Amino acid sequence: xxxxxxxxxxxxxxxxxxxxxxxxxxxxxxxxxxxxxxxxxxxxxxxxxxxxxxxxxxxxxxxxxxxxxxxxxxxxxxxxxxxxxxxxxxxxxxxxxxxxxxxxxxxxxxxxxxxxxxxxxxxxxxxxxxxxxxxxxxxxxxxxxxxxxxxxxxxxxxxxxxxxxxxxxxxxxxxxxxxxxxxxx
Length: 185
Prior knowledge:
- With 185 residues, this protein is an all-alpha fold.
- It has 5 helices and no strands.
- The longest helix is centred in the N-terminal third of the chain and has 34 residues, at 3-36.
- Pfam families: DUF420 (PF04238).
């Protein structure tokens, strides 16, 4: 390839980088605002909002399964199947995010974990590690997706070695945290 073919790709990479950083910041800032500022919905709700965490538990399960299937597909060199499962994981994660933000916007207060004894520090360790890594996975997953789809496979493979285990951990701990919290909704 001539150098002229590389220049547009680099320019578009900068555009992707700006978009990914912007999306990541917005998502994480909105989540922080919903937890730490009084910007939620103040009106009456005519239905049981606890359906949202239950749906999200299922969506996190789907994400975990899709990611495992994507990993198995790529280990077997089936790129087409890998891409399909990655898109499924992104779809379930995006739907999770919309429902998660909706729940925390509409819910006047979040349920509190009521477990006691040794389970309490285990829960908070899982919740804290899940939350921190969930914030980190947003840009990681987006960069990994973009670099894979734009055939920047060296970058894609290098970052995917971090993205896949972190995303698997976040989706699995999302399910575990939900199951631990479920009695308190």
